[in-house]
Write a structure and sequence with these properties.
alpha+beta; 44% helix; 3 helices; single chain
Length: 103
């Protein structure tokens, strides 16, 4: 499965409104999990089996909750049994389609 998720702390922002330090705690958990992952400006994507992915998401939420009294979580999942490597393969298929079509 692929999961795209975003964790947002409430009450832990820096003076300028940045939540980077709290979000970094969550991203660190994901990276240390050993599961395939990537982080962009809005979400962190992680790939693996249901139980292992959800356990990583929970640990990431818990890490942010250590520095924030309230945590928001947005999660989107692509559950497709029998498929692996989709973190990059889905993007590669779109890029291939873009290359095959006239601009």
């Amino acid at each position: 499965m692929l999961v795209a998720f975003s964790i947002s702390p409430s009450g832990a922002a820096d003076a300028d409104g940045s939540v980077a330090e709290a979000v970094a705690r969550a991203v660190r958990v994901v990276r240390e999990s050993g599961l395939p992952n990537e982080t962009n400006a809005m979400f962190t994507n992680v790939e693996g089996e249901w139980d292992e992915v959800m356990a990583v998401v929970k640990r990431a939420v818990d890490a942010v909750a250590e520095v924030s009294p309230r945590v928001g979580l947005v999660l989107k999942a692509d559950i497709r049994p029998g498929y692996t490597g989709q973190l990059t393969a889905k993007v590669e298929r779109v890029e291939q389609a873009l290359g095959d079509s006239p601009a």
